[in-house]
Amino acid sequence: MGCFSCFDSREVEKLNLDKQSDHRKEIRPSVSSNISRLSSGEDRLKSRSNVGLRKESSGPKDAPDVNIAAQTFTFRELATATKNFRPESFIGEGGFGSVYKGRLESTGQVVAVKKLDRNGLQGNREFLVEVLMLSLLHHPNLVNLIGYCADGDQRLLVYEFMPLGSLEDHLHDLPLNKDPLDWSTRMKIAAGAAKGLEYLHDKASPPVIYRDFKSSNILLDEGFHPKLSDFGLAKLGPMGDKSHVSTRVMGTYGYCAPEYAMTGQLTVKSDVYSFGVVFLELITGRKAIDSTRPQGEQNLVAWARPLINDRRKFGKLADPGLEGQFPIRGLYQALAVASMCTQEQAAARPLIGDVVTALSYLANQSYEPNSAPGHISRFNGDKDERRTGGRISKNEEGGGSGRKGDVEGSERDDSPRETAKMLNKDLDRERAVAEAKMWGENWREKRPERDDSPRETAKMLNKDLDRERAVAEAKMWGENWREKRRQSAQGSFDGTNR
To answer: Based on the domain organization, do 221 and 364 belong to the same domain?
Structure first.
């Protein structure tokens, strides 16, 4: 699960870190001053919602010194907390090093302690970047950094403990006694992770490019609340009139955006591609790269793309572990989002803010996971979903042995392109119908007290006719929105940038 170059690494970017010529000398724990000298400009990072951040300048030629709000620990304290880093305390491994579960003796708090792999080539840089990023950035969907240790040559990070592990633990290689995630939980995890990414891209100033978005870096708190972790590869985004930053190609194979892997040019759209890969993992239950599968199915995006292009095969993209318990229309919409995020051309991908809007809509839809096999659960405001949402496989129609939840063709165009267009239309339609209904029901209360004279009565007759006509038109518009969509459809999504 470690981080490695997507392809051949390019020339290593230079850092203005105070490197000692003799690496055997003891490194003093002056973490904040080292962080402030990162050449990529991390000292300029300011979060709009940061807490406890203070900068001081020691002179016009000196880099500003960042006073980290995180707690400092001695190595002895963390060794005691983890029972001297014994194997029974080991809970995982990341790009930075090994992770151990521990309990702080001073407070009794359960924590996760990440210990730097001193043999790693990039461990010290990752340590500096991660302390900086997590000290300045605060959001419900980012893991909380409690503190750090920089005793001698020891480098450790202390986080809040995530009791449910990583998203990867709940998607792949599940033990027999572990139930797979249901559809609603998957959508909520995706929406929460997207919100964390949105915070980095749109709320931090300058923006932060995560650069290593993957299922093993999404940790789960109680209630499957997702939080992004492992910021060692994070990079400040472009500023001013720059469209990208050029950097060494780093990340995890299978998640890297193609333009970044080929050119080293990094943008926020590179993160959007990685998000799309993780979202496909959530939908399909497959790994981003799986060497145990046949040759044509080892790369998740390459395998999924032709299936997404054919709506008759959408059912094959759903995780078999769901056992058909998913809304067909929800699957269409989720595939539309994943397809747009994993476009080959970066410019064709949506901004993460638009992804958050779409996924928040999906995560808030009502769905009954215990409904009958193959059942298309209706969404809020869509009472005729069972009639027009596509047909179920033959096993529900009374013949054949198709898998539960498989979809046959239907008259309407449910391609990802059209479904993506309809996400915003659905919201507008439901809002308009609700407003029209409320206006129709409360019109007497809204109008002023009327005069029942013949003159006023005549005026009100016309108002009544106008009201009834408006309500009828709103109702007709709401009921016939699918017909309007069919007329404006431009054909099935073919997976190319148009």
So the answer is: yes
| 28/74 Cα distance (integer angstroms) | 13
Token pair in block for residue 60: 């016009």
Active site positions, annotated: 212
Same domain, 181 and 145: no
- Domain membership of residue 57 (yes or no) is yes
Residue 428 lies in a domain: no
269 is in an annotated binding site: no
283 plus 341 within the same structural domain: yes
pTM of the model: 0.67
Among 102, 129, 160, identify where a domain stops: 160
For residue 102, give its domain range: 31-160
- Examine residue 15 and state whether it is found in any structural domain, yes or no: no
Residue with tokens 């067909």: 328
* 179 and 156 within one domain: no
Per-residue tens of pLDDT for the chain, all 498 residues = 444 444 443 333 333 333 333 333 333 334 444 444 443 444 445 444 443 333 333 333 333 344 456 799 999 999 999 999 999 999 988 666 889 999 999 999 999 999 987 776 456 777 888 888 888 899 999 999 999 999 888 899 999 999 999 999 999 999 888 999 999 999 999 999 999 999 999 998 888 999 889 999 999 999 999 999 988 788 887 665 555 566 667 778 899 999 988 988 889 999 999 999 999 999 999 999 999 999 999 999 999 999 998 888 888 999 999 999 999 999 999 999 999 999 999 999 999 999 999 999 999 987 766 554 444 444 443 433 333 333 333 333 333 333 444 444 444 455 555 555 655 565 565 555 556 666 556 655 555 555 555 565 556 556 666 666 666 666 666 666 556 555 655 444 444 444
Domain termination site, one of 100, 129, 160: 160
